[in-house]
TrEMBL record, chain A:
InterPro entries xref list: Cyt_c_oxidase_su4_prok, Cytochrome_c_oxidase_bac_sub4, QoxD
UniProt EC number: 1.10.3.-
Functional note: Catalyzes quinol oxidation with the concomitant reduction of oxygen to water.
One family name in Pfam for this protein: COX4_pro
PANTHER family the UniProt entry points to: CYTOCHROME BO(3) UBIQUINOL OXIDASE SUBUNIT 4
Organism: Peribacillus cavernae
Lineage start: Bacteria, Bacillati, Bacillota, Bacilli, Bacillales
Chain's gene name: qoxD
Entry protein name: Quinol oxidase subunit 4
TrEMBL record, chain B:
Localization: Cell membrane
Annotated protein name in UniProt: Quinol oxidase subunit 1
MF (Gene Ontology): copper ion binding; cytochrome-c oxidase activity; heme binding; oxidoreductase activity, acting on diphenols and related substances as donors, oxygen as acceptor
PANTHER family documented for this protein: CYTOCHROME BO(3) UBIQUINOL OXIDASE SUBUNIT 1, CYTOCHROME C OXIDASE SUBUNIT 1
Record's keyword annotation contains Transmembrane: yes
Source lineage: Bacteria, Bacillati, Bacillota, Bacilli, Bacillales
InterPro entries: Cyt_c_oxase-like_su1_dom, Cyt_c_oxase-like_su1_sf, Cyt_C_Oxase_1, Cyt_c_Oxase_su1_BS, QoxB
Stated family: Belongs to the heme-copper respiratory oxidase family.
GO cellular component: plasma membrane; respiratory chain complex
């Protein structure tokens, strides 16, 4: 049974479904913009990390270092782009 | 017939009708020629369905050269129009269309395929691999790029060219101010080509990280491979931004969304912002492989190993990160505050530091070297002073307070041409001449090559130096004419003469190819330049499996060590070699993408849906297809190797 239902993947699957439901609740429940955005951002990043580690097997091969370096690099650039854009287009306009 | 009215040119002229006729005649001539010489089967088997990185590289090269001439003709028309005040050669609309297509064609359909051509041909050879990691994906990349480029190029005879500049800023590029389908072509053609480039990025990163020859650690890779790795890293991180931005622009134009509109919560400035989030890293995508070529050429012809290998690598890694931190310097005058402008000014100047490190490394490689001035070396030596002119004016533009003076003037136009031509084009021409014998089995004529190099260098200076002065005098870019009293006439006349000199230089390169094809000796060794890295260790012409035995590497200059220090590159016996099969799917998928793009441009929804299904059908076919490749037997390898050794 353990081979048919590996606990890590089953837990990951349940968790990813839960995260989807929580994200969907932003649409169906009445909440403020700030709360809704926070929920979406948190669930989105946890979901992405979950998919990467549990289902795409990052960190299980010898390329571990290269894969995580690229992920962190991409994350840093995404944050720079978002906050740089906010700075140039909104905060300092 | 109303249905077909949409394909009419909104702003026709005799030149465009003449082009239509010329295109028609060319297509007929190609079809007739292929039929007469019975080359259809050859074309399909050897080129259209190939997954060989060397052939794909050569197809990229041919496309790039074709686009160089398309963009070059645009440039000559622009300079001719401006050569005298109040010229009537082109009207405002045509001028707009020509400068827009000149920019897009030169950056995306000439410079990009040129660097990808050299990467495709050289990188697998340089790391001792037999092909790229995903050969069929590589073919798909090429066909997507090619179909994107062709879609963009038919715009001027079907439906109208884009006319909102190569940056296509909103709100000008929105439906309100750009009514023709021209800007749809821009959005969709670049989208298709961009998807191809993104795939190339993933493909080459995987290839370089996973498929190096035994013993070649990261810090033993040749410099061109290092620059390609960093370039593809930037492609993977920058091109998704372009994809998303173009998709948003397409939706604004075709589906009535409000991302970049001026009302309903849209923000037109966001286009400029997102465009340059991609656009600035794009500059480094172009220049880093060029730097890689210079590193190879300079160390080969200075007969010395590259000075400061580690600092070269470190500076490229630094550039890859800094290139994402400077984008707002393209719009210092858009209204953001002094804080933002100061931040982006400082990051801009910071990026000059790693670039400077590289220049000094090249100079120190030349120091005490036994310099041999061949054509590729001549381009590299001409690059250093000319590029410095462009670079220094770039630092001037990078100072945000001063930029208010230069912004949107010919000074800016002069700057980026003085960077891109010596930086990228000289490198590509150097690389073309340098790798030509490996690609085609003969060398280009040195005498004609050097004439072309000098003419192009002089032409660049004569064409672009006057723009610095007319720009400082206040000549705005993208103006289709000016009055005599402005005094810009003399500068623009000199520029026009420079453009003609450049044109002569490029024609000489074509003549050189013709002349050398006819008269050059085919009796050359596999290492005619006495070079240092692995791509010269295999035969010329390169067999389809590249290396009969995978090389063993223990330094950055494996071939040089093999020649001078007796290091043995190829150890062991022949074994059967696993190679991928050819496939027609990438080409067919490219054709479907072309029809998809065309339907999208004109908002023809039923063909669009059908072609979308076709694209997914191709992908499904690939998923369920069982293709395990084929093996080249030991006997076949022995036969090929004996034949190639005999030829040398």
């Amino acid at each position: 049974m353990k081979e048919l239902f590996p606990p890590k993947q089953v837990m990951g699957f349940v968790l990813s479904l839960t995260l989807t439901v929580v994200a969907l609740s932003v649409y169906f429940l009445n909440m403020s913009f700030a709360v809704g955005m926070t929920v979406l951002l948190v669930t989105a990043f946890v979901q992405a990390g979950l998919q990467l580690v549990v289902f795409m097997h990052a960190g299980e091969s010898e390329d571990k270092a290269a894969i995580y370096t690229n992920v962190y690099y991409g994350l840093a650039l995404a944050l720079i782009t978002v906050f740089g854009t906010l700075l140039a287009m909104v905060w300092d306009m | 017939m109303d249905y077909f009215d949409r394909f009419a040119i909104p702003h026709p002229s005799p030149v465009i009708y003449a082009s239509m006729v010329a295109i028609g005649i060319t297509v007929l001539a190609i079809i007739a020629g292929l039929t007469y010489f019975k080359k259809w089967g050859y074309l399909w088997r050897e080129w259209l369905t190939t997954v060989d990185h060397k052939r794909i590289g050569i197809m990229y090269l041919i496309s790039a050269l074709l686009m160089l001439f398309r963009g070059g003709v645009d440039a000559i028309m622009l300079r001719a129009q401006l050569s005298v005040p109040e010229n009537k050669l082109l009207d405002a609309q045509h001028y707009n269309e020509i400068f827009s297509t000149h920019g897009v064609v030169m950056i995306l359909f000439m410079a990009m395929p040129f660097i990808i051509a050299l990467m495709n041909f050289v990188v697998p050879l340089q790391i001792g691999a037999r092909d790229v990691a995903f050969p069929r994906l590589n073919a798909l990349s090429f066909w997507l790029f090619f179909m994107g480029a062709m879609l963009f190029n038919i715009s001027f005879v079907v439906g109208g060219s884009p006319d909102a500049g190569w940056t296509s800023y909103f709100p000008l590029a929105g439906n309100e101010f750009s009514e023709s389908v021209g800007t749809n072509y821009y959005m969709i053609a670049i989208q298709i080509a961009g998807i191809g480039t993104l795939m190339t990025g993933i493909n080459f990163m995987t290839t370089i990280l996973r498929m190096r020859a035994p013993g070649m650690t990261l810090m033993k890779m040749p410099m061109f491979t290092w620059s390609s790795l960093i370039t593809n890293l930037i492609i993977v991180f920058a091109f998704p931004v372009l994809t998303v931005t173009l998709a948003m622009g397409t939706m604004d134009r075709l589906f009535g969304t409000n991302f970049f509109t001026t009302d309903n919560g849209g923000m037109d400035m966001l286009w400029a912002n997102l465009f340059w989030v991609w656009g600035h890293p794009e500059v480094y995508i172009l220049i880093l492989p060029a730097f890689g070529i210079y590193s190879e050429v300079i160390s080969t012809f200075a007969r010395r190993n590259l000075y400061g290998y580690k600092s070269m690598v470190a500076s490229m890694v630094a550039i890859s990160f800094l290139s994402f931190l400077v984008w707002a310097h393209h719009f210092f005058t858009m209204g953001q505050g002094a804080l933002t402008n100061s931040i982006f000014s400082i990051t801009t100047m910071a990026i000059a530091v790693p670039t400077g490190v590289k220049i000094f490394n090249w100079l120190l490689t030349l120091w005490k070297g036994k310099i041999v001035i061949t054509t590729p070396m001549l381009y590299s030596l001409l690059f250093i002073p000319l590029f410095t002119l462009g670079g220094v004016t770039g630092v001037m533009l990078g100072m945000s307070a001063a930029d208010y003076q230069y912004h949107n003037t010919m000074f800016l136009v002069a700057h980026f041409h003085m960077v891109i031509i010596p930086g990228v084009i000289f490198a590509m021409l150097a690389g073309l001449t340098y790798y030509w014998p490996k690609m085609f089995g003969f060398m280009l004529n040195e005498r004609i090559g050097k004439w072309a190099a000098w003419l192009i260098a002089i032409g660049t200076l004569v064409a672009f130096m006057p723009m610095f002065f007319s720009g400082l005098d206040g000549q705005a870019r993208r103006m289709y004419t000016y009055s005599e009293s402005t005094g810009f006439g003399i500068y623009n006349m000199i520029s026009f003469i420079g453009a003609l000199v450049l044109a002569v230089g490029f024609v000489l390169i074509v003549y050189n190819i013709y002349y050398s094809t006819r008269y050059a000796s085919r009796d050359i060794s596999s290492d005619p330049w006495d070079a240092r890295s692995l791509e010269w260790a295999t035969h010329t012409p390169v067999p389809e499996y590249n290396f009969a035995i995978l090389p063993q590497v223990n330094s950055t200059e494996a071939l040089w060590d093999a020649k001078k220090k007796g290091h043995v590159l190829f150890k062991g016996e022949y074994e059967k070699i696993h190679m991928p099969n050819n496939s027609g799917v990438p080409f067919i998928m490219g054709c479907i993408f072309f029809a998809w793009g065309f339907s999208f441009v004109f908002g023809m929804w039923i063909p669009l849906i059908l072609t979308t299904i076709g694209i997914f059908a191709c992908m499904a076919l690939r998923s369920f297809e069982k293709d395990h490749g084929r093996y080249i037997s030991v006997e076949e390898i022995e036969e090929t190797e004996t034949k190639l050794r005999g030829a040398n």
